[in-house]
């Protein structure tokens, strides 16, 4: 089957997707379909854990940042009690946005419309002219709506609006082991350097998410310039070895080295003090052994939180250094996304290394980075080229890696394929997406229970 005789029926597209994935095929009409956007917002983003911030972005009491969760603007704030919370960025009186700056420090949030004022814990603190209300305003009842679930994984703050969501640990599953490769490299942990860079691409969010989950294959063509000018080894299969790792819940990643015989500094070239502290940071030898021969880690925590840890030169004259970026693919519409991209580095790394790593990020995978521009142009083109009844009806090929054997003696968990060039992670990403899209679930997965901050804390 090469086309879907679907007309404009998304249910037929979905059915064809479920049937086709078993054979490594997917209808193009699922990529950026306006009829699926609202359903996706409810059933995917309304149920899944999503990354909000890093704890070093809100280090002091009163520090806050504004982020987005399941289509809603939320305030992530460290309260006076030291607890990091997330709550709706919307006044309970008339719905006015409370924070109109992206970050800051405050003990209270005051609505600019009528002056309702909230503590940075979310509790309503004051109502002007409250004598004019027929009854005393119950401050507990009218506190800001909290995000039902907020959890911190070694500094990474996630939120979920589904009242029945599993714990973050259960949701991450074995992906936690691979996040540890990056977040636990040093006992001191990571820090965000600079503010997250943001840019808008006329492309569907799923293209970025599924690319980072498993598409090392595009490196030899999309980023061919990097081999031609010497930023990467000239081998056309540079990103092939050794492992394409599939995990539960639609998560997936690649943990890659370099072609046999190519020079590779151990431990991605991290500074000596970081290398000497690896065993203490990780707490086990398996993580140390995996990092020793790795040059490139890319992956996605389903649905839209991705990471890239790669050793690159910032230009053809500079020595390769490792850099780490994590990003969120925030959907704005069926064919537009906003990319949020953070740069991370070990807190106890030398300052000279931090700056060099940051410059490498900015020049390669920042908003104006050379690699980033390559990817953005491809995703824009795919989004545009799969629109309409003719182009949307074609079946796309996701067969790479089908029938491949798993890698023996792999140190980490999951199901590793013996090679980075595969599309099993993409197939499983789409399989998870299709499962959620076709499952109406319970009412609690599509709406947040209106609980006060105090009620949420008590539960």
The biggest sheet amounts to:
9 strands, antiparallel
End-to-end separation: 51 Å
Q: Report the CATH topology name of the largest domain.
A: Naphthalene 1,2-dioxygenase Alpha Subunit, Chain A, domain 1
Rg from Cα: 23 Å
**How many domains, as an integer?**
2
- The average pLDDT is 91
Description:
- With 459 residues, the chain is of the alpha+beta class.
- It has two domains: 50-160, Rieske Iron-sulfur Protein (3-layer Sandwich), CATH 2.102.10; 173-437, Naphthalene 1,2-dioxygenase Alpha Subunit, Chain A, domain 1 (Alpha-Beta Complex), CATH 3.90.380.10.
- It has 15 helices and 21 strands.
- Strands 12, 13, 14, 15, 16, 17, 18, 19 and 21 form a nine-stranded antiparallel sheet that branches. It has a four-stranded antiparallel sheet with strand order 5-4-3-6, with no helix packed on it.
- Helix 5 (205-214) packs across helix 14 (424-437).
- The longest helix is centred in the C-terminal third of the chain and has 16 residues, at 370-385.
- The protein is globular.
- The relative contact order is 0.17.
Task: Set out the fold topology.
Blueprint: H1 10-21, E1 25-27, H2 34-43, E2 50-54, E3 63-69, E4 72-78, E5 84-88, E6 103-105, E7 108-110, E8 117-119, E9 124-126, E10 149-153, E11 156-160, H3 168-172, H4 175-183, E12 190-192, E13 197-201, H5 205-214, H6 219-222, H7 224-228, E14 242-246, E15 252-256, H8 272-276, H9 278-282, H10 285-292, E16 296-301, E17 305-312, E18 321-333, E19 336-346, H11 351-364, H12 370-385, H13 389-392, E20 395-397, E21 415-418, H14 424-437, H15 453-458
């Amino acid at each position: 089957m090469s086309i879907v005789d679907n007309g404009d029926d998304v249910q037929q597209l979905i059915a064809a997707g479920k049937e086709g994935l078993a054979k490594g095929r997917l209808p193009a009409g699922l990529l950026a379909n306006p009829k699926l956007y609202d359903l996706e917002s409810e059933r995917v983003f309304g149920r899944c854990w999503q990354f909000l911030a890093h704890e070093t972005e809100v280090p002091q009491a009163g520090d806050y940042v504004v982020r987005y969760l399941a289509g809603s603007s939320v305030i992530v704030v460290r309260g006076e009690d030291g607890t990091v919370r997330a709550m709706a960025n919307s006044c309970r009186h008339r719905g006015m946005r409370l924070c109109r700056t992206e970050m800051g420090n405050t003990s209270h949030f005051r609505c600019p419309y009528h002056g309702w004022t909230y503590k940075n814990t979310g509790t309503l603190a004051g109502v002007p002219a409250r004598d004019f209300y027929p009854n005393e305003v119950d401050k507990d009842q009218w506190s800001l709506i909290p995000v039902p679930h907020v959890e911190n994984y070694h500094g990474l703050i996630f939120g979920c609006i589904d009242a029945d969501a599993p714990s973050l640990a259960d949701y991450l599953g074995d992906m936690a082991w691979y996040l540890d490769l990056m977040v636990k490299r040093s006992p001191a942990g990571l820090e965000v350097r600079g503010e997250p860079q943001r840019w808008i691409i006329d492309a569907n969010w799923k293209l970025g998410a599924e690319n980072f989950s498993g598409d090392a294959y595009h490196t030899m063509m999309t980023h061919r310039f990097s081999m031609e000018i010497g930023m990467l080894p000239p081998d056309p299969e540079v990103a092939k070895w050794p492992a394409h790792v599939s995990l539960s819940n639609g998560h997936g990643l690649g943990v890659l080295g370099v072609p046999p015989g190519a020079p590779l500094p151990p431990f991605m070239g991290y500074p000596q003090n970081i290398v000497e502290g690896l065993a203490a940071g990780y707490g086990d030898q398996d993580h140390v052994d995996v990092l020793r021969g790795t040059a490139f880690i890319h992956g996605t925590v389903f649905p839209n939180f991705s990471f890239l840890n790669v050793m690159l030169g910032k230009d053809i004259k500079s020595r390769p250094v490792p850099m780490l970026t994590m990003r969120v693919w925030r959907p704005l519409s069926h064919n537009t996304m906003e990319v949020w991209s953070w740069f991370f580095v070990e807190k106890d790394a030398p300052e000279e290394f931090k700056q060099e790593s940051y410059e490498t990020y900015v020049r390669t995978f920042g908003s104006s980075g050379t690699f980033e521009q390559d990817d953005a142009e491809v995703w824009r083109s795919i989004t545009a080229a799969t629109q309409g009844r003719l182009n949307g009806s074609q079946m796309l090929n996701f067969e790479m890696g089908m029938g491949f054997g798993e890698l023996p003696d792999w140190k980490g968990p999951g199901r590793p394929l013996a090679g980075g060039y595969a599309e099993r992670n993409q197939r499983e990403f789409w399989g998870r997406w299709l499962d959620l899209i076709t499952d109406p679930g319970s009412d609690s997965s599509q709406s947040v229970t209106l609980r006060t901050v105090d009620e949420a804390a008590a539960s």
